[in-house]
Amino acid sequence: MRVRHxxxxxxxxxxxxxxxxxxxACATPGEPGPASAPSAPxxxxxxxxxxxxxxxxxxxxxxxxxxxxxxxxxxAYAAGDVDGFLARVSRGFYRGYPALETALHALVRDTTSRxxxxxxxxxxxxxxRVSVRALWERRLVPRNGAPQFLAGETVFYFLRSETSLRxxxxxxxxxxxxxxxxxxx
Length: 185
Fold this sequence. Notes:
Elements: H1 9-26, H2 40-47, H3 61-79, H4 82-86, H5 97-110, E1 111-126, E2 129-142, E3 148-160, E4 165-172
Antiparallel strand pairs: 1-2, 2-3, 3-4
C-alpha cells in the first residue's frame, strides 16, 4: 500500500489504518509489536508450561494458608513489591534476612519487568513448620539486557505461629532465581 502525493487526508488515514491492520494480523507471539505485548502477568501465564491450580478442598486451613503464601511470594516478586515479599519472610530467615532484602532491592532496581508463575505440588505439616513444594517459572527484563527465563523447583519451609506463616528457609532452587541469597545456610 502506498500513500500518493495529492491524496486527501481522509484517504491517507484509511491507507495507514489498513497497513497497520495488516501488520497486526501478521504478527506472531514472538515478534515485537502491539499484538504481542500483553501485560507481564498475562504473558507469563500464556507462555508458561506450568498450570497453577487452587488448593485441594481436603487441605486443612494451615496447609491452604501455606499454599497461598507461596503464591503470594510469587506475586510480590512479579510486582517488584519488596515489602510485600519480606512481609512473608521470618526475620530469622536462615540464609540471612538482610541478604534477601538487599537482593530484592537490587532486583527491582536492575530490572524493568518481572513475572512469575507458581504451581504448588505438595504441602506438609512438620510440627511447627510447614513445607510447600512448588515448581516455578520466572521471566525478567534487565535494564541493560535481553529478557531472561528461569524455571525451578523449591521446597519452601515456613515457621508456623498462632497468627501467621513466615518463610524460614528453602531447599532446592533459590526461589525465583533471586541472586544474592546464599545457596546453603
